[in-house]
Amino acid sequence: MLLTVDIGNTNVTLGAYNGNILLFTARLATEPRKTSDQYAVEIKNVLSLYLQDYREIEDCIISSVVPSVGAGIADAVSKLCDIVPLMLGPGVKTGLNIKIDNPAQLGADLVAGAVGALEEYTMPCVIIDMGTATTLSVLDKNGAFLGGVIAAGVRLTLKALTENTSQLTSIPITAPSSVISPNTVECMQSGLVYGTAAMLDGLLNRIEDELGEAPTVVATGGLSKEIIAYCEHNIIYNENLLLEGLRTVYEKNN
Q: pLDDT, tens digit, for every residue of 68-91?
């Protein structure tokens, strides 16, 4: 059984595979101050919740955008399951042709998402990942990674609004009934939800112009399901795209 681990700035997502079948997913908080022993206890509890024996895990692959947490979780899994996790990074076979200026700078999460999309969808393709940051990754018709876009994530935008203004408070991120809103809370919700959806539509139009053809668009992560419902483009939602990409990378290296 394979354990896939995607470590983002906010959450750690775990997924266990038996062959190609995803058995479960679970989330932990990303907390750089935690020790590997603390993460070992949390991961053991999660695995024990879903599996008869956590030692059924025979291998593990990890992608991380928080190096200290990645190292801690790798050590935790090693202690629990007596295995050495594969860390997604330079030198690991991905099958991805990366055409950005410095391929070593490409985040492991973006690599995992691109590999997952390359395996499952028609090219060219744009992958929208809505986490702490909102990213758009662009694959051309041959599946090469051309580059992309990075913008502030929805929750990060809300945090900036509430922390840097004296009269705006935190709100639930849901769509109001109309774009033109009659009160402060709904005005903020309109900007966050409809504003982000409009940004995505605008960027997708420009990307399509540069590619010269309409790409497949797939979204994953965080609030993407909530936001893409208000986009004008046809966008596929795939909650587990990064875990699927990690499973594919693992198979390419074993």
A: 999 999 999 999 999 999 999 999
pLDDT tens per residue, range 204-243 = 999 999 999 999 999 999 889 999 999 999 999 999 999 9
| 3-state DSSP assignment of residue 108 | helix
pLDDT band at 169 (very low <50, low <70, confident <90, very high): confident
Burial of 106 (0-12, 13-18, 19+ CB in 10 A): buried
User: Do residues 63 and 5 make contact, with C-beta atoms less than 8 angstroms apart?
Assistant: yes
Distance separating alpha carbons of residues 203 and 61, to the nearest angstrom: 32
**How far is it, in rounded angstroms, from Cα 245 to Cα 221?**
14
103-246, CATH topology level? Nucleotidyltransferase; domain 5 (3.30.420)
Q: What percentage of the chain's residues is helix, strand, coil (to nearest 5)?
A: 40, 25, 35
Active-site amino acid positions: 109
Kindly state the DSSP code that residue 70 receives in the 8-state scheme.
H
* Domain coordinates in residue numbering, the chain: 2-87, 103-246
What architecture is the 2-87 domain classified under in CATH? 2-Layer Sandwich (3.30)
